[in-house]
Input
Amino acid sequence: MTDRILDFLAERRRNGRDNGPCLVVDLDVVRENYVGFAKALPDTRVFYAVKANPAPEVLSLLASLGSCFDTASVVEIEQVLAAGATPDRISFGNTIKKERDVARAYALGVRLFAVDCEAEVEKIARVAPGSKVFCRILCDGSGAEWPLSRKFGCVPEMATGVLEHAHRLGLNAYGVSFHVGSQQTNPRMWDAALKSASEIFRELAERGINLQMVNLGGGFPTKYLKNVPAVKQYGNAIFRALSKHFGNRIPETIIEPGRGMVGNAGLIEAEVVLISKKSEEDSEIRWVYLDIGKFNGLAETTDEMIRYPIRTPADGAPTSPCVVAGPSCDSVDVLYEKQPYQLPISLEIGAKVLIEGTGAYTTTYSAVGFNGFPPLETHVI
Ligand code: PLP
Output
């Protein structure tokens, strides 16, 4: 949380505009994060994962700093182009695309696509001839607080066939990608995935197909309640793994940071709507209902995977365990219950609380109008 954000929120309160939850994103922090990635992984190109936070100001800043972009849909491609990036800096990184969306991306100038099966390769060959494709492989996501396994990628043994198929259909079989799981707290998790990637490179080279690129994905963490290793440690671990598995023939590499680029740049101010108990027993846990929940920004509390730091005006006072819940009429809209949250006993209805580390995966998960609650108000400063 930066002074700039706190000043902005104080001004909003003074002007009586604090009617609902509000996310404020500080571009200075995004800039620092971009520079941090560029320093920690100096030979790697950064493709910012737009899904984490597609605010036009964030995209324009990153475009001006020289970032490339990982996109998941035609809308995201259009957002990146509107922010001033050229199409050669865009990857269509979703492995699940409609053929007409591939055609639209191609018409917009995009020439880099993710695949994880032959059917997807065939779509690209039909409507985006000659494009570069990289094959996403499954990898072990343990150590990640928000795993991305199973749904995307094929087993490494299948990737050679997928890329060979692409080559046969006139596409540029360009490389391999993986994602070690989001909020990956173990920098060594890239090692096994890079071993698999290097084996695919070798096997295809034997068949006369020379891959060029490894997409190291996202996974770089932001700080929530627990400390996480610094980005430099990720850079060192990745460089060691690349050297170990590729020797002196290290391929071109890219990273796709989302959370690590914008997570700590955002702060949400929310309000305590109600504090209650489910019985008259004094020992009973309190329920603290906020005006923000799973459907207006905090979807990543699903299964309590992401635990955001919550600051209150009563911090420092004695605490007791609380269930923290959102405001909507859906009973799944409970943020923390399995592991109750310690909040000050003197916390009052109407208090403003600050939820840290909320720059990533909040606005994009905020539903329009569920129960009449508006999408998350957002300001980029
Ligand atoms: N790249 C791809 C293909 C993704 O699906 C994601 C997240 O879903 C990211 C990058 C960003 O991951 P993270 O936010 O963990 O950096």
Q: What stands out?
A: The CA atoms of residues 72 and 94 lie 5 Å apart. The pocket of pyridoxal-5'-phosphate is lined by residues 49, 51-52, 70, 93, 148, 179, 182, 217-220, 256-260 (CB under 6 Å).
